[in-house]
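Q: Please design a sequence for this.
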């Protein structure tokens, strides 16, 4: 079973209330990471579809996804290596993924637990659907389960830019 905690935020720029988005993950439980449900290390193949309301402008607008992964203590480097393989595939094969940045928390918790924060930018909803259903991404999630690498569910946040800038280039 795949467990994701999906947290969607509204974005006026894209003209859609992302709170109405529905994240569907194959046999998924969307239990909050703070809940008592601790069966979240059993990852399986992911069928990731974000169904945005049909009258929304979101389907053709760029948006960001922040994914926060919670590897078990001492397993962060393994997850990072696997994510780098996914990133290489994404860069070569998924042109609708505009950026895919892998980040590691700079300060582990007092217990030595770390987080991996993915900062992703998608051309549109179709690009996210393609990414989430790719064999490479599905295999990555399967490895997380088989190797028992995660201590909590991945948190996904869909966000739309409201200001600021991305680059000085």
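A: Design:
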């Amino acid at each position: 079973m795949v467990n994701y905690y999906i947290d969607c935020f509204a974005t006026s720029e894209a003209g859609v209330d992302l709170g109405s988005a529905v994240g569907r993950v194959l046999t998924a439980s969307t239990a909050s990471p703070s809940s008592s449900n601790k069966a979240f290390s059993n990852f399986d193949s992911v069928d990731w579809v974000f169904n945005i309301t049909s009258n929304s402008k979101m389907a053709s607008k760029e948006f960001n996804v922040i994914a926060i992964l919670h590897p078990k203590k001492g397993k962060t480097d393994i997850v990072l290596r696997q994510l780098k393989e996914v990133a290489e595939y994404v860069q070569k094969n998924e042109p609708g993924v505009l950026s895919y940045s892998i980040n590691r928390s700079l300060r582990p918790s007092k217990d030595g637990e770390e987080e991996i924060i993915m900062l992703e930018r998608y051309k549109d909803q179709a690009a996210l659907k393609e990414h989430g259903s790719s064999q490479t991404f599905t295999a990555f999630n399967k490895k997380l389960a088989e190797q028992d690498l995660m201590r909590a569910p991945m948190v996904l946040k869909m966000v739309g830019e409201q200001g600021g800038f991305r680059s000085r280039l």
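Q: Thanks. Anything notable?
A: Residues 7-55 have pLDDT under 50 and may be disordered. The first strand starts at residue 4 and ends at 8.
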